[in-house]
């Protein structure tokens, strides 16, 4: 250039400008060696471009022939996108081999030395994308015009991924929290609303009686979570559990099975009637409980004082003491005793062992002897032997239950237990 200072420079430096216009990583200005290398490689790239256009650069004359033939070999390695590491490595390895084999002379120290020729040539002619391709520039001239952008893209992708993942995670968390909150609210509301509804129906009773409104949890605690061991009786509508309240009083909790909120008005009426009747010989209601448990469904429970005074009097041979003083004369002492005994039999803890109304009428209207009163506590789970004994007695029209019923003899009349299918299990829970 010093010789022809007025001549136009044949090299097109715009190719470098174009490559750097996107904002590329540049070497730090303090590192002179790296900067020189950067400039040198940049010149080589421009030179390569010139060679591509003009078909001329100044190869050493004595090496031109061998260079040419060997360049043919590297064509396959360098004629592809060199952006990725693997094809770039294949290409540069071929060039190094070539250099080591043929370009062994000492460097003359300028930018167009033989050392650079393989890269310049490979970029200009061997590589189909040419020296202006970012991948080629990076691989053959170590000029990384892509790094900043791609690393920027990588960071953007990373940030987007983190944001997206975090967003999805947050959404899932919010969704789970929402579902949990809704379920809890529903469960709370469910129990509360039904208690409130029924509570309003019973307000009139509460004013005239001293009925206590128990919570389901209080009763659950008193009956040890409705333990089997606490069952003291079974009726058509459900079990009766004995339980102890915090004040130490013993209470019988009648728990209705299979009830729904729909029947609550009838129930309210029943409670109202029973609660309003007060008599020394009548079991007094302590209160009531209605609630809907999310797991156990709708609940209706009536607590009353545990009582077995009639049974105790009969067992002690004081049957007539059960009858209140001043009751109108109903008949002879024998007849009165019969009434009491039948009444006590009707309050047998087991539903199956209570006489039917037919049997009650026969006992009251004929000379049939009344079965003996059973001992307490009465097992609620009948053993197979007991059932078999009962079934064999059924043949003769006698009822023999594990509870001590004897001589229950009626013509053409078999107690309901006789009609039940015999179970294959060793013990049968009678519901
Ligand atoms: N307050 C109580 N004290 C002692 N035992 C009781 C009490 N309440 C019920 N029992 C016992 O539980 C048994 C069943 O009582 P329940 O009131 O369920 O009988 P039921 O009136 O025949 O039943 P249902 O009304 O469901 O047809 C009674 O026969 C009795 O042995």
Give a written overview of the molecule.
The chain is α+β, with helices and mostly antiparallel strands. Helix content is 48%, strand content 10%. It has helices at 14-21, 32-54, 61-78, 85-102, 117-126, 134-141, 147-208, 216-222, 264-276, 309-315, 333-346, 357-365, 384-395, and strands at 212-213, 231-235, 238-244, 250-255, 287-293, 297-305, 381-383, 427-429. β3 and β4 (250-255) form a beta hairpin. It is rod-shaped and about 150 Å long. 23% of the residues are buried. It binds adenosine-5'-triphosphate. The site of adenosine-5'-triphosphate has 17 residues, from β2 and β4. Adenosine-5'-triphosphate is lined by residues 232-237, 240, 252, 254, 283, 304, 306-308, 347-349.
Main features:
rod-shaped, disordered N terminus, disordered C terminus, two-stranded antiparallel sheet, 10% strand, 431 residues, alpha+beta, binds adenosine-5'-triphosphate
Rounded mean pLDDT score: 72
Counting DSSP H or I runs of 4 or more residues, the number of helices is 13
Strand content: 5-15%
Q: Write the element-wise H/E pattern from the N-terminal end onward.
A: HHHHHHHEHEEEHEEHHHEHE
Percent of residues in helices comes to 40-55%
Extract low-pLDDT stretches: 1-5, 196-205, 380-384, 393-431
Which structural class fits the helix and strand makeup?
alpha+beta
Largest sheet: 6 strands, mixed
Bound molecules: adenosine-5'-triphosphate
